[in-house]
Amino acid sequence: MRAVFMGTAEFAVPSLEAMVESGHAVRSVWTQPDRPAGRGRSLRESHVKRAARRLGIEIHQPESLADDGVREVVESASPEILVVVAYGRIVPEWLRTAPRYGAVNVHGSLLPLFRGAAPVNWAIARGESVTGVSTMAIDDGLDTGPVYDRESTSIGENETAPELSERLSRIGASLLARTVAAIARGEARAVPQDGARATRAPRLRKEDGRIRWDAPARTIHNQVRAFLPWPSVVVSFRGTPCRILETRTTGESAGGAPGTILSGAGRLAVGCGDGRALEIVRLQLENRRAVRGVDFVHGKRLEAGERFGVFGES
User: Is the entire prediction scored with pTM above 0.90?
Assistant: First the structure.
């Protein structure tokens, strides 16, 4: 089918590739404008833009889909289907309804669970053991459209958000190819979501990385995995911000107040609110390189009873 593809994040790249590999005529790719990034704040292209250039597809980057000329350009491509994956913008009604077969979205959760901008992160943060990908017809709500298909997968005990997102992007690409093929054959059926079961996955905020040590060890471990690479879990050590990059649950008991540092046996661990120890595998003090927990122990000459604090609290 003639298709227009809209996407920005790395999660969308396998879906774009799947559309091309399936033989569909992707007439154009729409992605968000280049944005300043990194310490030098130089303009950075989106993952989808780089993929589209590699695939030789026409690229458009409007600041807004309401910009003059956007509608004319889209309609001139005469798309039969619109595919939207991690684009980062609301798709207006005229664009959803212009193609003969409407607009299809690939979403990184088992809808109606985790509707919103960060489904992968929140599935991990909230301790889910299973998640998946859904394809749906886009309507005027936020991830509320009827679902064509779903595929589930288990979440590894130590799997991080970037790792899970990469796996889900591949699952989503295969699911999209299957869904679009069914639509083309006239065999696809979109089933309304059960709104009573819906949960939210809002856009991540910097504050989400500020944990409290009185939470259970498993909860903190989930937050560390979920909030990589941003906002990451930030605590304080001797008054300095410290990013916790990798943890491991041990199931071992821990004495002392929550946040108390437990060092020994060649490792670094912290006591949590449920009386269990959480091993700190890798961490990074502000303006320093990331180090292993055991190297942190050797380098800081920890005192008995010393604690990691809650970032932002004295």
Answer: yes
